[in-house]
Amino acid sequence: MPEPVLEIESLSKSFGALKATDDVSLTLRGGEIHALIGPNGAGKSTLIKQITGELRPDSGSIRFQGRAIDILDAAGRARLGLARSFQVSSVIPDFTVRQNVMLAVAGASGHVFRVLRPAQSDAKLTAPADHHIAKAGLHERAQARAAELSHGERRKLEIAMALALKPRAFLLDEPMAGMGAEGGGQVTAMLSALKAEAPILLVEHDMDAVFALADRISVLVYGRIIASGSVDEIRRDPEVRRSYLGDDA
Amino acid sequence: MRQVFDREALINLAIFAALVVTAVVAHVAGQGFTVTLATKAAIFALAGVGLNLALGYGGMISFGHAAFFGIGGYVAGILASHAASGAPLVASFAGTTSMLAIWPVAMIASGIAALLIGALSLRTSGVYFIMVTLAFAQMIFYFAISWPRYGGEDGLSFYVRNTFPGLNTFAPIQYFAICATLLALALILTAIITQSRYGLALQAVRQNSQRSTAAGIRPYAIRLTAFVLSGMITGLAGALYADLNRFVSPSMLSWHMSGEIMVFVILGGVGRLCGPVAGAAIFILLEHLLGGVSEHWQALLGLMLLVIVLFAPGGLIGMLSGRKRHA
């Protein structure tokens, strides 16, 4: 079994009396897609935010590539290669596609406070950016403003930005959201491509996609992981059927 | 890729050239007062260039930049007044009248103020940021009013303009040359910063701070750096303004001043390199032309501002260049 890339141990987070994350443990291993599913309000986003560093857990710890990252802030974790995408596709609207990816290259390098050279002629930014743009299939749109991209193109831009972070793991928050049926097919193809780069922790509502793509599934209900296992195990699990999938699944 | 001399760059050059030509023609025609007006416009423009870095490029709506303008002014005034009276300022140091010494002190003092104010106010955002920066500036304003040593409410006069090696700073055209040169340097610095890797990060943070964080960038550090630089540039303008008038008073620190600096930026074009230059020039022009007709000239200024905000959010530069701002 491949080494775990991301290890989450007994993570807990409460907002007042609400236990949004209740003693969650989870691992992401090399080469896999691990899907996190659960009904609305199960605490999926809260959990993701603790992994990215946007929220501080009350207790528990997170290891990334064998190293505790609890004290790192969100930018520091991103620089280690923990790449995330957002539920609502999120880019810098007034930047061109190329500038967006150059930004991610600059951020990943950790050398952001450089002022002497114009960014546009800094080959250390432009060369990797162009490479990732081509890889995401956006090279024809490199000079387009991000705000003018179609939804599918924006998703591709996000992927290019994630690639620029030299990802060691992807955290993808509902990548299918807002995509039509054919767009969903595109994303499925893209996820397979990403999986070749680094393992993926996938938060997704679309059950068909999850069952088709995931190697392992964890089910989150009321902040707790109630089941974790292969696709078949999850399909068969009686508690999952009762509390989430409904008996007809 | 953006060409070096695109339309907006030509407009920028034209605006700066117009300012210089105005001063030179007025000098040749013996109109010393007009040269002084052009100098005032250059100084206000410099203050606006400072604010533009924070407001235009960094999206930090500071309503407290008078604090830095006033601190720069008071540094010049205090150093000069000690030099005149011979009373020691610190230990045996009795101030100075050399601009080359005054400017760095003014910039460091306003930079430290910007670091403290920025470090606290950047923990908030939106309308709270506006209010916190305003509150800090008002604190410094009231402090200046209640500090009798340097004139309190009446302000502080110093009768001899500070000196610059090789120049007669009392000659209006020579003082204009000093101010215009500093303005040009600040514009070049702004252009370099905003085109750089750091500038890319600053403008990304303005538009989408969460996304920037996910790309490995720390918005707080990026913003604070720009805020400090911004305060230092506006502080330098304050020192020049004090020297222009040979007088500083708490009015340089008042919220009216903060508002005026903001007006320069908005009139000319938020986040446009020469926006503050155009904005300050129009402001001075209106003040001079209409101020003589009616003391209510600012009503017209208000109307102009309203029209610009509603119909030409790119300001004057935006209208002339006919293009939306792009990063």
Automatic annotation (TrEMBL), chain A:
Keywords: ATP-binding, Nucleotide-binding, Transport. SMART domains: AAA. One of its GO terms (molecular function) is ATP hydrolysis activity. Gene3D superfamilies: P-loop containing nucleotide triphosphate hydrolases. It holds the Pfam family BCA_ABC_TP_C. GO terms for cellular component: plasma membrane. InterPro entries: AAA+_ATPase, ABC_AA/LPS_Transport, ABC_transporter-like_ATP-bd, ABC_transporter-like_CS, BCA_ABC_TP_C, P-loop_NTPase. Signal peptide: none annotated. Residues 6-247 form the ABC transporter domain. PANTHER family: ABC TRANSPORTER ATP-BINDING PROTEIN, CONSERVED COMPONENT OF ABC TRANSPORTER FOR NATURAL AMINO ACIDS-RELATED. This is ABC transporter ATP-binding protein. It comes from Paracoccus aurantiacus.
Automatic annotation (TrEMBL), chain B:
InterPro entries: ABC_transp_permease (IPR001851), LivM-like (IPR043428). The keyword Transmembrane applies. GO terms for molecular function: branched-chain amino acid transmembrane transporter activity. The keyword Transmembrane helix applies. It is found in: Cell membrane. Signal peptide: none annotated. Keywords: Cell membrane, Membrane, Transmembrane, Transmembrane helix. GO terms for cellular component: plasma membrane. The chain crosses the membrane at residues 9-29, 35-55, 67-94, 100-120, 127-145, 173-193, 220-241, 261-286, 298-320. It is a multi-pass membrane protein. It comes from the Bacteria. This is Branched-chain amino acid ABC transporter permease. It comes from Paracoccus aurantiacus. The lineage of its organism: Bacteria, Pseudomonadati, Pseudomonadota, Alphaproteobacteria, Rhodobacterales.
